[in-house]
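Researcher: Let's do a round of design. I'm pasting the structure tokens now; please hold your answer until I've finished.
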């Protein structure tokens, strides 16, 4: 079944966001008054997908107390924590 054919059967779609669970509930209203609810997971925020691990951030904090940026980078590369 293609999108165009499916569109003939759907009356409306309402999206309800469930923030605490990072999900959305799709309320699909079909022609003929039937209704179907479908729950989908929402993607993580971009900041969370690129976030550095806590151990890495803490190591940078400790090093920043007494080293300039270039030396911090050198230490992280030596410790192989740069990834």
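Researcher: That's everything. Go ahead.
Model: Designed sequence:
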């Amino acid at each position: 079944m293609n999108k165009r054919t499916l569109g003939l059967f759907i009356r409306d779609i309402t999206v309800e966001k469930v923030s605490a669970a990072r999900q959305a509930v799709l309320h699909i209203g079909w022609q003929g008054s039937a209704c179907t609810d479908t729950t989908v997971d929402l993607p993580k925020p971009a900041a969370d997908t690129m976030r550095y691990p806590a151990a890495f951030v803490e190591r940078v904090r400790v090093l920043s107390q007494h080293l300039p940026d270039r030396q911090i980078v050198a230490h992280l590369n030596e410790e192989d924590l740069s990834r």
